[in-house]
Design goal:
With 185 residues, this protein is α/β, with parallel strands linked by helices. It has 2 domains: 120 residues, 3-Layer(aba) Sandwich (Rossmann fold); 47 residues, no CATH class. The chain is built from 5 helices and 11 strands; from the N terminus they run βαβαβββαβαβαββββ. A 5-stranded parallel sheet has the order 2-1-3-6-7, with helices on both faces. Strands 4-5 form a two-stranded antiparallel sheet. Strands 8-9 form a two-stranded antiparallel sheet. Strand 8 and strand 9 form a beta hairpin. The longest helix is centred in the middle third of the chain and has 18 residues.
């Protein structure tokens, strides 16, 4: 059986969010939904996803800003689902980082087809077995080539702290939050 994409739905219409999550869950996806960007970034810390279904108009937040942030900082696929259907809206959405732009109302079967299409692309971008990833030295903030075969990178004895940006709903700005991560072994 093929692996299914892990999906997050960001939609401020609670009923539409719940309906989308229920449909995708019934189709076998590991899926969760939230109504704000702040909720999304908080939940992403513990439940990463491959594909984000993102509404553009999220009340006080901009789905375009969220798409730009995700596109710049991750490899997850972004499917915009919005009522804004003019050519200019679609171009701006795709330019902000969306892989696909669908105009509401969207048939759930078309949504599934888009999830499958972007997930296939993601699976082809995953390094093949035997390809070793580069490492991030979080003390010097440098990318290091993989160690020679048969050797392991020496992790730092202490935990590293990095900053991540979380969109703050109150101030409409970015809230810097510290989290601990283990250095890459």
């Amino acid at each position: 059986m093929n692996a299914k994409a892990r999906v997050a739905v960001i939609e401020d219409d609670v009923d539409l969010c719940d309906s989308t999550v229920d449909f995708l869950d019934a189709k076998g996806y590991h899926v969760w939904g939230v109504n704000t960007g702040v909720e999304f970034f908080r939940r992403m810390l513990g439940e990463p996803v491959d594909v984000v279904i993102l509404d553009v108009g999220l009340g006080k937040e901009s789905g375009l800003d969220i798409a730009s942030t995700l596109h710049a900082s991750s490899n997850m696929a972004i499917i915009m689902v919005t009522a804004l259907g003019q050519l200019e809206d679609r171009i701006v959405g795709l330019a902000s980082g969306a892989d696909t732009y669908l105009v509401k109302p969207v048939n759930f079967l078309e949504l599934v087809a888009n999830i499958e299409a972007v997930f296939r692309r993601l699976q082809h971008s995953i390094p093949q077995e035997g390809v070793r990833p580069w490492l991030l030295d979080t003390q010097k903030w440098l990318w290091l080539p993989p160690p020679p075969r048969g050797r392991s990178a020496q992790p730092s004895a202490h935990r590293q702290r990095i900053s991540i940006g979380v969109l703050s709903g109150r101030s409409q700005g970015w809230l810097r939050q510290q989290i601990s991560v283990e250095p890459h072994p």
